[in-house]
Amino acid sequence: MSRIGVFTCHCGENIAGTVDCPKVAELSRQIPGVVHSVDYKYMCSDPGQTLIKEAIKEHKLDGVVVAACSPRMHEPTFRKAAAEAGVNPYLCEMANLREHCSWVHEKNEATTQKAADLVRVMVEKVKHDTPLTPIKVPVTKTALVVGGGIAGIQTALDIANAGHQVVLVEKSPSIGGHMSQLSETFPTLDCSQCILTPRMVEAAQHPNIKLMTYSEVEKVDGFIGNFKVTVRKKAKKVDEKACTGCGLCVTKCPNKKIPDEFNEGLAFRPAIYVPFPQAVPNKPTIDTANCTYFKNGKCGVCSKVCPTGAIRYEQEDELITMDIGAIVMATGFKLMKTDKFPEYGYGKYKDVIDGMQFERLASASGPTAGVIKRPSDGKEPETVVFIACSGSRDRAKGVPYCSKICCMYTAKHTMLYKHKVHHGQAYVFYMDIRSAGKDYDEFVRRAIEEDEAKYIRGRVSRIYEEDGKLIVKGADTLMNGEPVEIKADMVVLATAVQSQDCSEDLAQTLHISYDKYGFFAEAHPKLRPVETNTAGIFLAGACQAPRDIPETVAQGSAAGAKVAALFSQDELTREPIVAVVNRQAPPLFSTCTGCFLCQTACPYQAIEQEEIKDRSGRVIKTVAKVNPGLCQGCGTCVAFCRTKAIDLAGFSNEQLFAELMTL
Amino acid sequence: MRIGYYPGCSLLGSSREFDESVRAVCETIGLELVEVPDWNCCGASSAHVLDHELSVALPAKILAQAEAAGLTEVLAPCAACYSRLIGAYSELEKNPDHRAKVSEIIEMPYTGAVKVVNVLEVLERFADVIQAKAVQPFARKVACYYGCLLVRPPKVVNFDRPEDPQVMDQLAAKVGATPIDWPFKTECCGAAFSVTRTDLVAKLCGKIVDSAVKLQAEALVVACPMCHSNLDMRRPETNAALGKDLQIPVLFLTQVIGLAMGIEPKKLGIQRHMVPVAFNAPTGAQA
Amino acid sequence: MSSANHHESRPDTLAARVKAATGISLAQCYQCGKCAAGCPVSEEMDLTPCQVLRLLQYGQDKYDEKAMRSAGIWLCLSCETCSTRCPQEVEIPKIMDVVRAEALKRGIAHPKSKDILAFHRAFLDSVEQTGRLYEIGLVANYKLRSGHFMKDVMLAPKMYVRGKLGLLPHMIKGTAAVKRIFKRTLGSKG
């Protein structure tokens, strides 16, 4: 016969306001198997927990039911208290009298009766509980960081500096990301490259960081502490060890008319190229889709001129599989393109550009060496219109959310423009100025007051070309919606920040959740901002939502700290709530018939096949086996099993039936 | 091939040449027009100003008549009629309760079985036939003017792209014309204010005509009787507002296609325009 | 928790009427002004489209009245430029229809609406009588209603010689049915 104690909590007025707690305690005392039952105002408080611990010792309890709030809230608290008093923590259960009863019902007799029923159910469960031991799994102390922008670089450096190994994977030929394309950064106007490139070099030279550029994550198996990751190292067609980075091949390549991604299509690059002068690694890659040799077998100039014979036309992609303990996603964002705006010309006007293109025009390393020249004819634009919220906060044709960074970078653009074109006039069409951040609003005021940007509160209805000018038709809502027409030389659209095209595929590869816009979902918007719902996978930067540089760096460090904390342990403890396939005496061995329906049903690939052999090694039977490291305890396999061979520890069929039968 | 035909009131009077040219072109490409029996006015731009229910009931009556006559698709060449018909169709499509109420008002069953199409949509289906039959290419620079009602509201008409539409340009190109890329394709001409606010119409038409001429178009091409009468009949007021004397002719797309197919200009109603259809250099089809 | 009635809007505001008649919520408008920016006639309006919506957003009689008394609402051409470009998918022309109808009902429509209304009424008169529009009848009726007798007198002969004036009205067989449609919808409003 069990010796169960029931502890009913008032939760202040939360439960006691509608449920007669002393009555619940009294009714519980009458349940067979219950030897002790009390109620108390705050069971989770220190004295409350002491009450439980002392009762366990005094009444020699072998099971505990705490009738209080949701187990999500305090199950760990009470299980810990039970364990401290010598009861296996999995023999301590909670009856949820708050969310399931007092908060959803009026104060009356029936509510108290329901509370008593909930206690009785849990008492039955405890009677059928078996002691469980937490599962220990080892931790591989190597982190994988996906994405080599500032988010990934920061994360990798922080993990590496904590003494752990990091593999930093970047899909393009160089790390640096969008930040390497920026001219100067708000709110301090320091040169983006100047602050970024030292970090890039540091990452490349760090003894704990292994850099894999031009590489993509192909497959992820396993679980926290024990992932198996396959990375595709795309063929650069250049032997990185033999190449000295002299750049002769780049200079001699005859095919120089390929739109340059780094310069957002405002310049051209050759087919063998280094994305930008400060690229890391500073070695070229052949763009096979545009290389003459790969298109028709002719040319081969790069191979002929290379002084070290480093060109490898025959080089193939490599698939590299590695053991990884934690993964940080830092895959960044993309900007909506100007062709997505029907009323602004569907991208047909060359002088209607996006914010990143303006960064390239303003950048000293850009196609105009930092001189502001408009793309159509290279003239210096004397009037530039900046349009904020282009595609953002536009549920009809764009995205409904605020892209967050545009207000600030647009203010910065007006400043950079004024600093370079002194007689020029910048206009900004905006809806709201969102400049919450340290020194941010002061920065916007400076753009308006010192650099004389004219801010007009209203959206632009249309842009068209007439007599060599771009006619921008907006309205000033601070002047009763008065139509405003500006004849501009160039228009810069602050286009919406969107998730990367590959984000959904990548999320599916990693089994992490994402929102309807393709941004990766955090585990909790406030309390777990850099974790995903999949243990061991973390997030940093704009792959989660639009972010500026300071936030991205902070998040990168946060994710790094999470990984470091994980790697501070040699073993991980996991809840033992996992599925188990039964074992029986020979000749049956198990009621499992080996249909493996469970294997197809399991969402976590946790079910393996196990061969039962006789002494001579002959296979007698093949049955299912659950890998407790992978099993998440969802119970799907239990429901699918035709022969009732699988049970979920802590939630066995027998327990659930016992709970139901008592009602 | 047959299709229901709803000419609408303007095409019986002030825009007879649109009716004439649609009929002539359809005959040539082998499309039989079956007029909706005993059709009534759609309410145009007046009904909805005074009463919403009336503005739905009048077009619904037309579609119900077409349905009773066993038609499944009705071509409404007049853009205003097209807009009212497809607007009513779309509203009743979304709301079955409203369908029942309207059926009572019009004393006829309305089930939504009849689809509404505009003239560009129909001609687009015959693009290859039209190209093959264009024996006298209309080798002129043209400014294709769509106006409001063929492309807006996009969720209702669901035709071409709402800004910078292309279908009329492509059709004009099929018969040898060179459509210009210009920014006023869908700017409003002032529509129903022709009589009441002629000053406004003159101002709005002024921008349209001026831009077309500046970009060296030799003709404006339209597919809407309201646009046509504003751009053509209101030219004296437009020119006065501009302080210019612009003589660029305004043709219906069906007239352009008809001319290129070698149809007799008179049969296309070319002589009915206020701004004479005449061109400077004899580079192409002559009217 | 606050009172349950706290957010219930009054059923007699213009915004509520718009919602009932068209399903459009005025709260959707975030006052970006894109409608006013693209409207072909906003320069002529005393209240631009976004201002009309702003007044309606308050749900107060004095602002509703200001919107209904404006001349601008009578200039809306229903060209749908605003609704096509509105980032919040507000169908402004439909709202304008409701505001105009309400202004007429209360007899507070702007005097400048007189000619425009005269035209629309003349137009519908013609349709009500014959089932189709009789253009000469429309012009004659409009001149009577508006008092602009000399308007376009020079145009008629030009149209006549070009065969653009049908001298006789087209009567359709279903004239009686059309009349009944008018009676059931417009009723006495016309």
Q: What structural class is derived from the secondary structure elements of chain A?
A: alpha/beta
Please give the alpha-carbon distance between the first and last residues of chain C: 49 Å
What's the architecture of the largest domain in chain A in CATH terms?
Answer: 3-Layer(bba) Sandwich
Helix content of chain C: 40-55%
Helix fraction of chain A, binned, reads 25-40%
Written account of the structure:
The complex is a heterotrimer of chains A (663), B (287) and C (190). Chain A is of the alpha/beta class and 663 residues long. The longest helix of chain A has 20 residues, at 109-128. Chain B has 287 residues and is of the alpha/beta class. Chain B is 46% helix and 9% strand. Chain B folds into two domains: 2-119, Glutathione S-transferase Yfyf (Class Pi), Chain A, domain 2, CATH 1.20.1050.140; 134-272, Rossmann fold (3-Layer(aba) Sandwich). In chain C, 53% of the residues lie in helices and 0% in strands. Residues 1-7 of chain C have low confidence and may be disordered. The chains are: A alpha/beta (663), B alpha/beta (287), C mainly alpha (190). At the B-C interface, α2 and α3 of B face α5, α6, α7, α8 and α9 of C.
Summarize the structure.
Helices cover 28% and strands 25% of the residues of chain A.
List the helices and strands and how they pair.
The complex is a heterotrimer of chains A (663), B (287) and C (190).
Chain A: E1 4-9, H1 13-16, H2 21-29, E2 34-40, H3 46-59, E3 63-68, H4 71-84, E4 92-96, H5 98-102, H6 109-128, E5 135-138, E6 142-146, H7 150-161, E7 165-169, E8 184-185, E9 190-191, H8 192-205, E10 209-212, E11 215-223, E12 226-233, H9 248-252, E13 258-259, E14 268-269, E15 272-273, E16 285-286, H10 292-296, H11 301-305, E17 318-324, E18 326-329, E19 333-335, E20 352-354, H12 355-362, E21 383-390, H13 406-420, E22 425-430, H14 440-449, E23 454-457, E24 460-466, E25 469-476, E26 482-488, E27 490-495, E28 497-499, H15 503-510, E29 537-539, H16 549-567, E30 571-574, E31 579-581, H17 597-601, E32 607-613, E33 619-626, H18 636-640, E34 646-648, H19 653-661
Parallel strand pairs in A: 1-2, 1-3, 3-4, 6-7, 6-18, 7-10, 18-29, 20-27, 21-22, 21-27, 22-23
Antiparallel strand pairs in A: 5-30, 8-9, 11-12, 12-17, 13-14, 15-16, 19-28, 24-25, 25-26, 31-34, 32-33
Chain B: E1 2-5, H1 16-29, E2 32-35, H2 44-50, H3 52-68, E3 73-75, H4 79-94, H5 96-106, E4 115-117, H6 119-125, H7 127-133, E5 141-144, H8 154-157, H9 167-174, E6 178-179, H10 198-214, E7 219-222, H11 225-232, H12 235-242, E8 250-252, H13 253-260
Parallel strand pairs in B: 1-2, 1-3, 3-4, 5-6, 5-7, 7-8
Helix pairs in contact in B: 1-13, 2-3, 3-4, 3-5, 4-5, 10-12
Chain C: H1 14-22, H2 34-38, H3 49-58, H4 61-69, H5 81-85, H6 92-105, H7 113-130, H8 135-146, H9 155-161, H10 175-185
Helix pairs in contact in C: 1-6, 3-4, 4-6, 7-8, 7-10
